[in-house]
Specification:
about 325 residues, single chain, globular, 16 helices, mainly alpha
Amino acid sequence: MKNWIARLFGGGEAGAPATPAAIDPAPPAPAAPAAAREPDPIPDFWRWLTAGASAAAPAAQAQKHAQLVLAELDRLVAAPLNAAGLVPRVPEVIPQLLRSLRDEAASSADLARQVARDPALVAELIREANSPFYRPATQVRTIDAALLVLGRNGLRMLLARAAFRPLAGTQGGRHTRQAAPRIWRHTEKTALAASLLAPGMQADPFEAYLAGLMGDLGLIVALRLFDGMLETDPLPQDPAFVDALLGRTRLLSAHIALQWELPPPIAAAILGAPGTGPSAGQPLAATLGQAERLALLHLLVDSGALAEDDPAVTALDRASVRVLERLAPADGIA
């Protein structure tokens, strides 16, 4: 899993592997108390993610588990290869197809033959081609027709999504099983929003899509750590802990991106997306930060946790509103 993404997803030859030392290993400084922040739905992410598993636990017990998880995340940040063992591998057909997509000599017939080897991928390809996102004039029923609708870049994004979906799988303990579907919905919508925002923000759409797919990976690792420590207990909800946890899981996602040899701008974007740090002003980081916000806004409104006329929604600019509207069709794409 370490090498194949950078080598196979296109965009030129992969350079020398970036090392995790390129990222400051120190945990982010604690955020300001919630009362000092401007109104913002983003701090509600953990509450939305852990719905149904977030009742208050005894303070001493919750604090103990919280500190153990944070300490283990710090250890994994320093050795991100160990974290890779906590996420599943991708299906074999995915890297083979991506290799073919990089080969300009590969014909549509070659691609169709490879897609046909995986019935689940065939179903997803046809479903994607018929989605409101592509709005085909007539219903798409064949692999060849679906490939024509999506094009090579659309197929790359579909394959990237198919490759990353197992990483947010429901294997594991109670907390991972409960949160995994929500994590994947957030991941998928963030990636889609990032790809849509990228052209207007001078960022590469496919790099933005990959950054969106990678951003939540540290959360999967954290939930698996919780599963090993408090299978029957609720997850801690202390705001200071949540800030520390989300900061560390973001840092871990960036380190894993480098460990897997994705283009270094993706790791930098993950770190800069909250609007802080050296990479915050880079187009890809700004794109990912806005995509994360729009994805969460959509999910909060969709779940009834946020009103459609909330200022966080009504204050959006026209371009963001258009992207928010296009996130809804993705709900029907498994």
